[in-house]
Design brief:
The complex is a heterotrimer of chains A (204), B (108) and C (956). Chain B is of the alpha+beta class and 108 residues long. Chain B is 22% helix and 31% strand. The longest helix of chain C is centred in the middle third of the chain and has 18 residues. The termini of chain C are far apart. The chains are: A alpha+beta (204), B alpha+beta (108), C alpha+beta (956).
């Protein structure tokens, strides 16, 4: 009965074709199966230091994401971060972190399948997001490295503005909301479907 | 759509928040030392002032943190917000915490 | 088709292009740049509708959103009720008809797109007239982020409707220069056809952009027809202009009676002459340019009737040059004509007395009673107003932080004043933003002639007035509502003293136009009637929306499949493929049942129930809330929040738990598994997942922040598959060959980590049905694979997928309550017969103290029982009331309780119900009655557990 390599499916695994038909001003792809761990630790504590040393990172402050590296660290609350790493790293990271934390008080919980990640890029990103996000996404207000947990349309999301991609945004969305959000994004692009310059039909 | 300044996340629209009622209503040290009327005061009765009111809010759609705020109930203006962790030291002595150790012993 | 009232050499319409439209069944033509109203006037059509109460013919009074009369229903290309002809841009193929006050919603679905856009700026400027443009330009030069919204298709505002000059050239040339510069500013966004309609908290202004309405049938389907802009602005400048107000006199509502400034707009913006022969009735200087410009375009001005004794020399001279006679100290007392005004009745009016009347023939009567600053949005923003007796209008007094007016919205009625005020508003806004720079030179305008003040005149006495002056039954105040001076006087005569009360008594100001032409006039007439100062009465309150906004626009894209988020589990595609019908549980779509071809709902559910009780069945339980509780004090926290003792739970074991509020009422239930010494995983009901996490965080963060424990939602990390029924063990053994599924190795209320279908899984032996059952949890990515493997493994046993309906039946047969269905926030664990889940050992937990409140100790509380209808086929409706007698007594009928759950049971071969019944436990064995369809159904009260009370089936 045992399957050798059991098949797995991400929440938006069937959406590639629809994403491919988006206007050229917006590229959307799902980054499936990323390792995601919730880290809870008091900032500045010995345990926090142990985590930072273990991962070779600095835990970013409020509304910030650490520089993307092997493990990307997203601030989600005053004593809470989401650690994001490539597929399949959860067991290794959990073991290393728990070992580093030792008897101090800090917790790490595997939440890899709790959310999926959408990578958005292109000149239309901010325009499309502005249809459903009440926050000011102007780069002068929300620069690269920002990490905002908020609402996009009616879905809770964590929105990360990436350093390395022009107009690159990552959206972390709970798996059950993923198809709603994908539907919303596709619908939000309706107006720009024949557009290349990141402007609406009337030039805005 | 009012903006509420989360102590951690800054100004966000009010739909990101849930209201938690009057602030500084501590769980009684010993509920069993209170008669029914005193207990009912804790459970059911809250102030309803016209003017500044100390309240609790939680940034549900953001950092999930509870915080205290002083809000004018006439204008709805938030006069101040505070991170309640900074404001209040740990209260491990509060019941039922204090009694808990005993209960746990009994349980074992 | 000719358009006889088009004035050569005037207007900004595109005469090279002709548009066809139909109004009230007649075909007409117009040009791009026309409104429906201007095109009708160009065709000589003044009578556009009949009034709502009296059926009186009504014409076009104004040229913009203040229009009270010219309501139309658009029939094609898309039906839309209740638009003002003065704001509908003309397009080819438009079909419309006039409305008597009430429109008709289309029966067809509106297939157009509507959407919403958020925007942020340092400065929002509302209105692209001279003041707003000056403000915007100055701010743009300072480099701040500016949004300029304007309701017209093109910028310029009042300049479009005048012959003013700026910097020595036609003013519209200056407008073009400004726009060209703004276009080059990356941080300036200009939104035409966009009307701000609401000012809300913290600088949030909502505006409606009409993006494709003006394209008619040519509107592209993929572009939103209208868009709501949610603009969050640090600073707001309302350069919203002013609205001219009429004066009340007898029969002041006939077609052909028009505001003087609006006639000027029709001439200069649209190239339309509203009449051949006009009488101009004014109380101020502003009607003179209208009279002169119309005269210059070919309208014969029969007379200017000026209520003032003194007319400035400048206007006297200019009129004399045109051969226009002025009658100072005179008023219009009434009119003649039916379909169109034919005559104005004029009389001297001195010391409050009318002299002898004289008729002057005309087909156009222009009226100007002065100007009201458009302060609706400023007032919504909580700016205060004061009465300015010099102009007879309410003007801004105290501006709230971040809000100000510019131009005639603030009472600066002259062009030079408006421009200077606009520059000044920018300076103040920039200063508030902490920015410098951005000054522009105030553009130069022609020197103003010496003027004379407005004579404030609300109404002309009616020649019909009785000795008490109480008539005015033909003097209309609110033309849309057909409300007259006599209605106002009736209101004050009835003792009303507040303009808010008079508004509601007379309905003045409650129509689509929000009383723009009638509100201040009504205040003035009330003040005169009561002998009080208008300043003390004030205007009525301004509320959003300032202009009518369609619900479709407000809904935006939140309709259809995006109306509310649809949350789905990882197994959803399988459910869809296998024909499940879905039930909405909160935002979740959960399989309700899986009908086979030809099956009714009842048949499908009975079949699914039978499978679970006699064979094996499986369901998707992934929506259960799951919270990971981790840390040294995890057990302490759970002990305080559950009624049960959780800290004693051994690793590897599971306990059912109930949570109560401090009032002792059940708020949630679920299972708690101890994963490790310092780690628990608890489940919540589907609809309560977020609420219970918030509740737990509330206690942890605010009451016991010293506890070393962290809470993490893992609801969607796991797919949860209950595998239920006597053969579930066999199926699990096949799917998890490495697991010892024997009852001793894997007893009830324990869990094991194992591999199911090759996937690391956590299997819990818990049962929500009373049957032998397992709950298989795997990371959600593997959900489908494991579900399919279980389905395959179970095929030899006839495994049956089941939905929420079957789950409900199975649990109800065992009297397992659903929080929120069998409870309603007034039910204690004891009421549910769950004293066994309430720890006697713990000295305290949330809710415990309330259990001993007198109310909660009453023996006649409502308690959970089962009801068995005497007729085994009768299905009681959930929510049905329960009474003691077989006939319904006279009201008030004593109600004993209500049915909370009701089903057909395959296992019991009959219907049954759960109910909350007063003193229910004591009534077991009694017969009670449920009124149903005009009769009463006898039911027997029984212990709530109807199936396998001894629990023999649990271990298979």
């Amino acid at each position: 009965m045992t399957v050798e390599t059991p098949a797995r499916f991400s929440p938006l695994s069937g959406w590639q074709d629809r994403f491919a038909q988006l206007p050229t001003g917006l590229r959307v792809r799902e980054l499936p199966f990323l390792t995601q761990l919730t880290l809870r630790v008091e900032p500045g504590s010995a345990a926090a230091k142990a985590v930072e040393d273990c991962l070779g990172i600095i835990l970013p402050g409020p509304l910030r994401a650490g520089s993307p590296g092997d493990v990307e660290v997203l601030w989600t609350g005053p004593d809470e971060w989401l650690l994001v790493a490539p597929d399949g790293r959860q067991d290794d990271l959990l073991a290393r972190l728990r070992s580093a934390i030792g008897d101090d008080f800090a917790t790490v919980t595997d939440v890899s399948a709790q959310r999926t990640t959408l990578a958005l890029s292109g000149p239309l990103v901010r325009t499309v997001l502005a249809q459903g996000c009440a926050l000011d996404l102007d780069p002068r207000v929300t620069p690269a490295g920002s990490c905002l947990t908020t609402l996009l349309a009616q879905a809770p999301v964590t929105l990360v503005v990436r350093e390395e991609e022009p107009s690159g945004v990552r959206l972390l969305v709970r798996s059950s909301f993923a198809s709603y959000l994908a539907t919303w994004l596709l619908d939000a692009c309706t107006e720009y479907r024949s557009d290349t310059g990141g402007r609406g039909w009337d030039g805005r | 759509m009012q903006l509420i300044a989360c102590p951690w996340c800054g100004e966000r629209e009010e739909i990101e928040f849930h209201y938690g009622g009057q602030a500084h209503i501590a769980y009684p040290d010993d509920p069993y030392a209170l008669d029914d009327e005193q207990w009912a005061q804790y459970v059911f009765f809250r102030d309803n002032p016209k003017g500044p009111f100390a309240e609790r809010w939680v940034h549900s759609a953001g950092c999930r943190r509870w915080f205290n705020a002083l809000r004018d109930t006439v204008t709805h203006e938030f006069l101040s917000v505070h991170d309640n962790r900074a404001e209040r030291p740990s209260r491990t002595g509060t019941a039922p915490a204090a009694q808990h150790a005993e209960g746990q012993e009994a349980g074992r | 088709m000719n358009t006889p009232f088009r004035a050569p050499g005037h207007g900004r319409v595109d005469r090279d292009t002709t548009l066809s439209f139909t109004f009230d069944g007649t075909a007409y033509t117009g040009h791009p740049g026309d409104t429906l109203a201007s095109a009708l006037l160009a065709n000589g059509v003044h009578h556009v509708a009949d009034s709502i109460r009296y059926g009186r013919p009504r014409g076009v009074l104004a040229a913009g959103a203040e229009e009270p009369n010219a309501l139309v229903q658009i029939e094609a290309p898309f039906p839309e009720p209740m638009l003002t002809a003065t704001t509908v841009e003309l397009y080819d193929g438009l079909v419309a008809r006039g409305l008597s006050g009430r429109g008709r919603l289309s029966g067809e679905p509106d297939t157009a797109r509507y959407d919403t856009m958020h925007a942020h700026c340092d400065l929002l400027v509302v209105g692209a007239g001279p003041a707003g443009l000056a403000t915007t330009l100055a701010a743009a030069r300072a480099g701040v982020r500016v949004i300029l919204v304007d309701e017209l298709p093109q910028p310029g505002g009042s300049l479009l409707g005048s012959q003013e000059r700026i910097d020595g050239a036609p003013a519209t040339r200056w407008v073009g220069t400004v726009l060209a510069e703004l276009d080059d500013c990356a941080d300036v966004r200009v939104l035409q056809r966009t009307t701000a309609f609401g000012h809300y908290d913290d600088g949030l202004v909502l505006a409606l952009e009409k993006r494709t309405d003006h394209l008619g049938a040519a509107a592209p389907a993929h572009v939103s027809r209208q868009r709501i802009w949610r603009i969050r602005a640090q600073q707001v400048v309302y350069a919203t202009g002013a609205h001219e107000r009429p004066v009340a006199f007898d029969n002041n509502d006939r077609p052909g009676i028009m505001l003087a400034g609006s006639a000027r707009t029709y001439l200069n913006r649209f190239g339309v002459l509203p009449g051949r022969q006009a009488v101009v009735f004014t109380t101020n200087d502003s009607a003179y340019p209208a009279a002169l410009e119309l005269a210059g375009a070919g309208t014969r001005i029969a007379a200017v009737i000026d209520a003032r004794e003194e007319v400035p020399e400048h206007w006297r001279t200019a009129c004399a040059e045109r051969g226009i006679g002025i009658r100072a100290g005179h008023v219009v007392t009434g009119t003649s004509g039916i379909e169109r005004v034919t005559r104005a009745h004029v009389a001297p009016f001195r010391q409050g007395r009318l002299g002898g009347r004289q008729g002057i023939g005309c087909d156009l009567l222009l009226v100007s009673g002065g100007w009201n600053p458009a302060v609706a949005l400023f007032s919504q923003a909580r700016g205060t107003l004061r009465y300015d007796g010099g102009i007879g209008a309410f003007v801004p007094a105290h501006a709230p932080d971040g809000v100000r007016t510019a131009g005639s919205a603030g009472g600066a009625f002259t062009l030079s004043g408006a421009l200077a005020d606009g520059v000044d508003a920018a300076r103040q806004a920039l200063s508030a933003l902490g920015r410098t720079g951005g000054t522009i030179a105030v553009p130069t305008t022609a020197p103003l002639p010496d003027g004379a003040p407005t004579r404030v005149l609300w109404r002309v006495p009616s020649p019909q007035d009785g000795h008490d002056g109480q008539d005015g039954s033909k003097q209309f105040v609110d033309l849309q509502r057909d409300a007259t001076v006599s209605d106002v006087l009736r209101a004050t005569g009835a003792g009303l003293r507040s303009v808010e009360h008079v508004k509601r008594y007379t309905t003045i100001g409650t129509a689509h136009d929000q009383g723009r032409t009638s509100g201040v006039m009504a205040s003035g007439i009330v003040a005169e009637s009561l002998g009080v100062d208008v300043a003390d009465l004030g205007p009525t309150r301004f509320r959003p929306p300032a202009v009518p906004v369609a619900f479709a626009a407000l809904a935006g894209r939140n309709r259809g499949e995006l109306f509310d988020p649809v949350r789905v589990t990882a197994l959803h595609p399988w459910h869809v493929e296998h024909g499940a019908l879905f039930e909405d549980v909160g935002q979740w779509k959960r399989p309700w049942y899986y009908p086979r071809a030809g099956e009714t709902t009842d048949e499908a559910v009975l079949r699914e129930c039978r499978a679970a009780r006699t064979g094996v069945a499986m369901m998707d339980g992934s929506t259960l809330g799951k919270i990971n509780v981790r840390g040294p004090d995890a057990g302490i926290l759970l002990d305080r929040l559950y009624t049960n003792l959780m800290s004693t739970l051994k690793v590897g074991r599971i306990r059912y738990g109930v949570m109560c509020g401090v009032d002792g009422m059940v708020i949630d239930d679920g299972t708690v598994i101890r994963v490790a010494e310092e780690e628990f995983l608890l489940t919540t009901t589907t609809g309560n997942a977020a609420g219970i996490l918030e509740w737990m965080e509330e206690w942890l963060q605010t009451e016991w922040p010293g506890l070393r424990v962290h809470l993490t939602s893992v609801t969607e990390h796991w797919v949860t598959i209950p595998l239920v029924g006597p053969r579930s063990r066999d199926v699990l053994a096949l799917a998890a060959p490495g697991l010892d599924v024997g009852n001793d190795a894997f007893p009830f209320m324990s869990w094991q980590d194992t591999t199911v279908a090759g996937v690391p899984a956590r299997v819990c032996r818990i049962s929500f049905s009373g049957e032998l059952a397992y709950e298989i949890n795997v990371p959600a990515w593997y959900g489908i694979t494991v579900w399919k493997a279980l389905h395959t493994a179970g095929s030899a046993f006839g495994i049956t997928p089941y939905g929420t309906e079957t789950m409900h039946v199975l649990r109800a047969e065992k009297a397992y309550p659903i929080v929120g269905q069998d409870t309603d926030g007034t039910v204690t664990p004891q009421d549910l017969g769950m004293s066994w889940a309430v720890s006697k050992k713990k000295p305290d937990f949330v809710g415990k103290r309330s259990f001993t409140r007198a109310e909660n100790r009453r023996e006649d509380r409502k308690q959970l029982v089962a009801l068995l209808p005497a007729d085994e086929q009768v299905l009681l409706p959930e929510g049905a009331q329960i009474i003691a007698t077989s006939s319904i007594p006279e009201p008030p009928v004593p109600m004993l309780g209500h049915v909370t759950s009701s089903y057909r049971s395959d296992a019991l071969r009959r219907t049954f119900a759960l109910a909350l019944v007063r003193s229910g436990t004591r009534r077991i064995g009694e017969t009670l009655y449920v009124p149903l369809d005009g009769r009463t159904v006898p039911v027997t009260v029984t212990d709530p557990v109807l199936f396998d009370k001894e629990g023999t089936r649990r271990d298979g």
